Amino acid sequence: MSALAAVAAWLQPALVVALAFRITAGAPDAPWLALGALIAPLVAVLADGGPAARNVVTAAASAVSVTLLLAANLLVAADGALLLGMPRWLGAALGAALALAAGAWPSARRVAVPALVVAVTALLLGPFAVAPAGGGAPWNAWHRSGARPALTFPERSPWVQSGKWFARATTLRFTEGQRVVTVAAGIYRVVEHDAAPPTVREWRLAAGDTLTLRPGDELSVEAGARLRFEAGRRVPGAPASGAEWADAPTRGPHLLPMAVGALLTVLGGALALVPAARRGPTAVFGPLVLLAATLAAIGWGVYAASAPDVVLGGALPAPLLLTPTAMLGASGVPLALLTAATLLLLLAVTAVALRERLGASASMAPQLWLAAVVVAAAVALWPLDAWRVLTLALGVAAAVWAPARLATGSSGALAGPIVGGMVFLAVAALPTLAPAAPAWLEALARYPALVAAPLGWAAARALPPDGDREAPTR
Known about the structure:
Elements: H1 3-6, H2 13-24, H3 30-46, H4 56-83, H5 88-104, H6 108-134, H7 138-146, H8 158-161, E1 164-165, E2 170-173, E3 178-182, E4 186-192, E5 199-205, E6 210-213, E7 218-221, E8 226-228, H9 242-247, H10 256-273, H11 285-304, H12 318-328, H13 333-361, H14 366-380, H15 386-401, H16 403-406, H17 410-428, H18 430-433, H19 442-446, H20 449-462
Antiparallel strand pairs: 1-8, 2-7, 3-6, 3-8, 4-5, 4-7
């Protein structure tokens, strides 16, 4: 398999938009995510393959992981439809139909690699189109965003003029007073922290009602809620200033477990999803496409930060779909539609690659692929966090699927996934079984592969190769 075909299963829409979103939001783990997204598949491409024999544990793990990966990508399609003014279900249905058709088309494998190159090129051209309005080169745009005294709503923001939808239920924390107008009826819950204990108030408001919020208040909104904010006020949940966005003061040694957990999850997921590739002069194209896709996501994230309100609704594709109109006005609509089409093309390429990986570990039966797409589409109908679903999918792949590749024999290929799977389930259940667990266990709850993957890999390598077993004595 060529290096370009090998990385096709890695460059998923959910991963690309998640990287851009977290850069726009100033998330402390954004640099680690960018590094892992670039390095992990390169390690997987150069790694040696595991035993050819398949077993029921890796088959089940691959089915679960592929289904969750499809669900994460369909959640992105659903959020994208919502951002473009269409219902969520339409985006999920369109993405599911595209994934089903791409996975079943006999000639899809031949056109997948050229389509991947076209999609990544289109993603890379997007930041160049908005660069003149965003401050020039990405480093200049970064400096310009970091020099702002506060991240506030611009006057022409859709959140100010007509109001926008929230892709999922969320809690907004206000650092300054603000009057918020409800555009759609719903239930709104406010927690006031100006007294001990905090006061909780809940209202069922109609369209046009107003909420007056004070500094320190928290507003909880349901998925689908639509609000209108005041121009010039700070964006709730955003860093207090551009300097905090650029420098992320929350980074520090205390984030090391989170960073290691994220890197290990991404690396293990890549070992399962990205097969070893042929060596040779053409192998350089795989790393080049990976670099271009990573730079495109970083560029979208940096330029989107000039309009910090684009990520307020919690939709991962917002930096790519809303930045063109936020910066270019009506002339940015064609670019937004082109970017949406590019993400759909990337989804189709990913579906072809995931179908092949599922067939290599489980079965190429069309019924299995159909079941995976249908279950993923059902999951995508709920307003879940696509980033959380993506990390869960990569965690299952890292802890249960990847050990079979690192094993030296069929026994290790079975023992490693069993150990990794049992530990993964136990650690993932910590928040439910021990809700009062210490704060330092948060990294384990968010990234169960931090413990499960190394134990699964060690178990897979501990057993000797099949040919090294001692012959039974008579």
